[in-house]
Amino acid sequence: MFIFQSRVTSSIQRVEDVLDLKFCTDGVQSSLQGEDYEKAAGHIHRFLSLDENVLRMASDASEGSTLDTSFKMLHEAEEKLKTIVRNKFDASVHSGDVASVERFFKIFPLLGLHEEGLTKFGKYLAAQLSEPVGKSLTENIKISDDDKRSKILFADVITMMFERIARIVETHQPLVETYYGPGKLDIMLILLQKECDRQSRLTIKEFKKRREFDYKIQQVQQSMLFSKSISEKLDCKELDVLLSELVLLNTRAEIYLRFMKKRALNDVEVAYQDSKEKDEKCANIDRIFNNCDLNQLMQEMIGHYILMEEFFMREMVLKAVTMDTIEENSLYSSMVDDSFFIVKKSVRRAISSSSVDGVCAMLNHCCTILEQNFRETLYAKLRPGFPSGFDLTQAYNIMQSSFQQGKLSSDTEKAKTAFLVTLNNAEASCDYIKSLQNSLEEEVSQLFSQCNDQNKAKLESCLADLGAVSARFKDVVDFGFSQLSSSAIKPRIKPLVDALLSTNHNITEEEFSNYEANDPWVQNFIMNLDGMLVNFKLEKAVLKTTFNRLGGLQFDKELRALASYLTSVTTWTIRDKFARLTQMATILNLERVTEILDYWGPNSGPLTWRLTPTEVRQVLALRIDFRSEDIRRLKL
């Protein structure tokens, strides 16, 4: 039964195929005569879908000559139509008839000419780029240097080309998918990319000429090679502008290439079901765009960028060190802020380039410059040690008086202040590096979230190396404190400790009793040590300051932060040590003078006041917005 049904179905199919063949034979002739090329192509497409050999084998002797005639006529019509479509397409391109170009482009796949149709159409679209991009380049290079867009004119030119290609792809991709099917888009994209490569070469060539790029690269290379500064010849401000344009060029190129690859890969995903075939096709697309001239050009430019950015960063950091100044009332010098501003600017610029290799290279250079240039400068200033002749208390007083008066009275005091400022600089640098690392990690995670695991690992490793530099600066801080301790603390403490050696501890009961009444060593030690530390009491500094309402609120926040920090790094009971300061902060935070009565006396609750009434009035007087008469009228 099954065999019978199969034979019946086969016979019916053969009859239908013969009828289709006759229909195609008659239809193609009339369509060609009427120049209805779409309809003629439809008949040819139906004919090409028939299996000619099966029809011949199934036909009987009487049908043989008829089939031969039909096949001959259809093959002749096929070749004739192919010639017509090719010629008509070329003529439409030549005349600029866009509608006709698209009309005949749609016919190619019906004739089995998918690749030829896409190739011709791709070349046509690529040709549409040549004139406007070339015109844009010609017009832009005439822009005066005074024009605000002159600094990025080549980035503008290449961006215009990328945007034009993107519009072409977005406009014509549906056309390709509808008439040619999925998996064919890459043919058109590759042809567009070849024209993009050609235009990119012209743009970069003009960029190098206008910006004197090769000459500047040569200058930088000579400077790096011979370890000498050529900053007088090469203006760092000019280099800064050049680097920004260079990065912008690469950023736009990266965005464009990602767009093209994504379009091609998405087309492959839809077209191929077999995973092996799909992977091979995707790998081929990656290879094509990774090896295109545009990508190779940008790789070369990024290599030059890294060299120039390293030079710029090193020169500017050295300049910041050379021009180091100490502002009035500052515990740090200008080199810290200036140097880290430059470092952050350079690394962030590298990140904006969208080049993983560029970012990693600049992070490595950043670490090297901070360690070899900046850190060594700090180390060299601390290496001679803290000038002798002053103890720690005097050193502290020098810092306070010099910043309050804005001047130093002697070379010795200048040297001592320079040492202490350098020590502060080293400690601040540790914090700057940690802050820099955190901010860069955030930017990298946002901009490179689509990277593969290998590139992510490279970025994480380089950022971790930057964090390790902080530990190297901590070594400088420790070294500075050891120098300070040797020069300013030990000379003061050692005689007090040595006094223990001259105190007899092989004593009688009478001497022991006498020691209880008149200790020969420890009371004197405590008194002298307390005298050294009293100058460092925060309470003393607060009483020399004035506040308004917001200032009092800020001091309260600062005190809480300080207490929190000390709690985290010590095993002491900090709350009790800060009791007086906390109460001072409460007073400074009042909205009006009489509000103190809500906390004083019977209203104090479980609070035990560590301040006397006189001290409370003294703290209230620090508020510049409180009247002295109101403070005096208080009954405490």
TrEMBL record:
It is a peripheral membrane protein. GO terms for biological process: Golgi organization; protein transport; retrograde vesicle-mediated transport, Golgi to endoplasmic reticulum. It is found in: Golgi apparatus membrane. Gene3D superfamilies: 1.20.58.1970, ESAT-6-like. InterPro entries: COG4, COG4_C, COG4_M, COG4_N. This is Conserved oligomeric Golgi complex subunit 4. Its main location: Golgi. It holds the Pfam family COG4_N. Keywords: Golgi apparatus, Membrane, Protein transport, Transport. GO terms for cellular component: Golgi membrane; Golgi transport complex. Belongs to the COG4 family. It comes from Acanthosepion pharaonis (Pharaoh cuttlefish).
